[in-house]
Amino acid sequence: MALRNQMRVEITQNKIFKAVVYCLDEFGYHETSINKVLKYSGISRGALTHHYGTKESMIVETLERILDPVRGTRILGKPPINKIDERNTENLRNNLIRLWVNVVNTPEGRALVEILIIARTDNTLFEKIKTSLKKYNAEINANISSIYEVISSTEIYDLQLNWTICRTFMRGLHIHARFEEDDRIIEQMMERFADIMAPHFKQN
User: Fold this and answer.
1) Residue 74: what pLDDT?
2) Can you list the domains of the chain with their CATH numbers?
């Protein structure tokens, strides 16, 4: 019985998570209301408020679930993304493009950007998520340090700085994409950026 109840809870929370991600991606943070989440999740108001009393708590939990795969947690049937496949011998250029396609330029990736943008000015939300984001940042840096080394320097700081530049650029593409009429421009920008950054890394 306990296992069945746990499965029911997980199913409900996954429905909420998918609905919140969809709303953040399609409508933005301000238009991601309780009513919209109810509409797209298909669950009752009572079930939603049982798990999350406020929109803010729902957003915080959504952020945690978006970051889970980076921590190595399987979610919604997807494999962990905290490690680049060791069987892959391709260079950083292709890994960057793959990261853009499979992680950053996805509903979850775009939802994360929405949360980060709001947290820049919403101090209450920022205080609730800053610890997780700092931990996430440290885990990303540790992961990259185990895979790549900087060609031009042995300083670990340079490696982390360069990788942070990569992540910042990819997040910024989401914002810029709204101003481009041709989707291929974004793809070309990502490819050109990968070409620029690739010479600064080599695989360990």
Assistant:
1) 42
2) 2-203 (1.10.357.10)
The string of pLDDT tens digits covering residues 108-147 is 999 999 999 999 999 999 999 999 999 988 888 887 777 7
List the one residue out of 10, 19, 11, 12 whose CA is nearest residue 40: 19
State the average pLDDT over residues 70-83: 47
Question: What tokens does 160 get?
Answer: 């982390």
User: Judging by DSSP bridges, how do beta strands 201-203 and 148-150 pair with one another?
Assistant: antiparallel
* Model confidence pLDDT, tens digit, residues 154-197: 566 688 888 899 999 999 998 998 899 898 999 999 999 999 99
Is pLDDT at 58 greater than 70 in this prediction?
yes
In the three-class reduction of DSSP (H, G, I as helix; E, B as strand; rest coil), residue 136 is classed as helix
Count of beta carbons in the 10 Å neighbourhood of residue 35: 9
Q: For residue 44, give the DSSP letter.
A: -
Which residues lie closer than 8 Å to 67 by C-beta, 6 or more apart? Answer: 112, 132, 136
**CA-CA distance, 172 to 117, in Å (whole number)?**
11
What backbone torsions phi and psi does residue 193 show, to the nearest 5 degrees?
-65, -40
Q: Are the CB atoms for 48 and 38 separated by under 8 Å? A: yes
Helix 107-119 to helix 156-177 angle (10° resolution) is: 100
How far is residue 59's CA from residue 11's CA, in Å, rounded to a whole number?
Answer: 18
> What phi, psi does 95 have (nearest 5°)?
-65, -40
